[in-house]
Amino acid sequence: MSAAVELLARRRRRTRRGRLSPGLVFSVTVLLVFTVGAVVAPALYPDGSGAQVGAPYATPSGAHLLGLDDAGADVGAELLWGARVSLLVGVLAGVMTVILGGVAGLVSGYFGGWFEAVLMRTTDFFLVIPVLPVMIVVAALYGTRLVNTIVIIALLSWPGTARVIRSQAKTVRQRLYVRRARAMGASHARTLIHHVLPQVAPLLGASTALAIGHAIFFEAALRFLGLADRDTTSWGQMIADSFERGAITAEAWWVLLPPGLAIGLVLLSTTVIGRRFEQRANPRLAVSHLGLRSFRRAAAAKEAS
Description:
Helix 6 packs antiparallel against helix 8 (188-224). The chain has a single domain (39-282), classed as MetI-like (MetI-like fold), CATH 1.10.3720.10. The longest helix is centred in the N-terminal third of the chain and has 37 residues, at 75-111. The protein has eleven helices and no strands. It is elongated. With 305 residues, the chain is an all-alpha fold.
């Protein structure tokens, strides 16, 4: 059965060598569109995201493609300016998450022993910390600044990455070429950087993509609960404002739908990209997309040969 799995993985790699997955192309395109929109937002809307340009709750039109909110501000301007904050939080918190989790996972998985036990017990401690009470305490003590939101998201999100990387590092350290490198006098630092790290890099890429999407969703949830900085515009703040100001009662769907759709698209895109990185790390995961019929056909072909 394992031979059939390997055969399917090889066939899938050969088939996809010359083309890209439509889902991957779509995901990368979505992220590029939002990134470019966030970059050009000051040029398109130099007055910012809260400038009144028309009547409250004006419906979408040629002048304002996404309509206006309750204050008469362009929803399109708010969406692009909000992308600057949401993507910034997602990238910074995601990178911090992967750095913390990656270092802890690599070191604990490679060295093992009491060092691994200490790091994993620390990981377990962070896993059981309740998020909302911690955010309430942080907001009460240090305020709801954006930097506090980024740091607390990273501090509460790295344990999952650490466990995944630790598992892979424990497997890689047992491979023959790693043991040969150590036997030939390679230092621990050189072995980690040149032999172990390249093998876990696809998982780090997957963790980064997933962490960015998770951080954007987390920031939006904190905004909705009033536990983040309300002086800056983000997608989560747009959703919170639409609920507080009666957009649903006014049936102004064009105020609520764009930020929710943007968050959903970014989450979907980062998940697809993260899944692709996971498949590079473990080609057997690609078999699940081929379907049971293809699996049986390949297994029968392998047995016949």
